[in-house]
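Following up on my earlier thread - several people asked me to post the actual chain instead of describing it. Fair enough. Here it is, all 412 residues.
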Amino acid sequence: MATRAKRRRVARPVGCGGDHGLVPDPGPDPVAGFLSWCGRVGLELSPKVAVSRRGTVAGYGMLAREGVQAGELLLAVPRAALLSQHTCSIGGLLARERGALQSPSGWVPLLLALLHELQAPASRWSPYFALWPELGRLEHPMFCPRVRSLELYQQLVAVVMAYSFQEPLEEEDDDKEPNPPLMVPAADILNHVADHNAHLEYSPDCLRMVATQPIPKGHEIFNTYGQMANWQLMHMYGFVEPYPDNTNDTADIQMVTVREAAFRGAKGDAERLQLRERWDYLCKLEMVGEEGAFVIGREEVLTEEELTTTLKVLCMSAEEFRELEEQDGWADEGEEDSLTITDIPRLRESWRRLLRDSVLLTLQAYATDLKAEQDVLSNEEAYSKLSWREQAALQVRYGQKMILHQLLELTG
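Reply from S.P.:
Thanks for posting it. Predicted structure:
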């Protein structure tokens, strides 16, 4: 569950109290109606959890009213309470028109279901909708001031993007079409952090949110939206985790940037011609492409095979490259080809030099340097004057630059 409100606050969650899993908030409270609805539809909430706006990182969230142990059930949502193209009141119509509603995203049937249920006076999900953010105030990258056409459609697309779940396929069903998205009441209340303490499990009868680690009393319960870098969180959900909280953050080095770094280091036209031949060879192997990027995490290179192969081919001698072309690939040469972060200092010197030059070119593409970002982040007054979009963009850039500067240290 994520909107602008899902940005991480500095303060940690505080203690909670109240009855029936409800922590009272000032003013009209839709949570009581939602909890009553949960009882009617058989949605089970553990007595150890509370739904609240207070003590959470942002917006509505879920807190531990008592200490929770790993493996404990936090909530269980019967499949009949899910809101999907199959359970909505126009499910029959959507099924009959299935062929006309196909789209690359697979979202159209759910969007139509939401359009109908939101406007239906007697929708059985009305108490659930009461916990949604006000649609007109959704803070998402798609709602920039210049883009307000098809407003309701965009708002619901943002809701599906930020709040929906997609049930994973079984291993034996990997060749099938992905399951369509669906809305999971209560489960979508949980906020996201990389270091989450709960996850959603799927079973034939219900969906279960289960604690994955001990959760002390008063602490917030967090789900995960997946291993996502800050730029992905911003693009998909409209929020980021401030540095250094997002341990899944990454930085990209464009593949063509590595090629450019190699060309700049070439000595003469003959060497540049050899590099072009090697780049073409890598393209045939589908290791590189004009639009591709090498993805670097804090602890590992996510595109290890691609980057290892690229450095190896671009840095090998002319004789080694001729031998490579004559044979079908090469034998494994051992640990020196590893590109886990801790192994980078042990790479061949030529590999490290090319990787370092590529990092320096990547850093030059940013409008500001790392120190400028650090100065703003360390100045609370200056940071507070930024809009939420500017703050998020700053956190994205800063996390990327920290990874790139780590690479500079490792290749130096």
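The longest strand covers residues 73-78. That should answer part of your original question.
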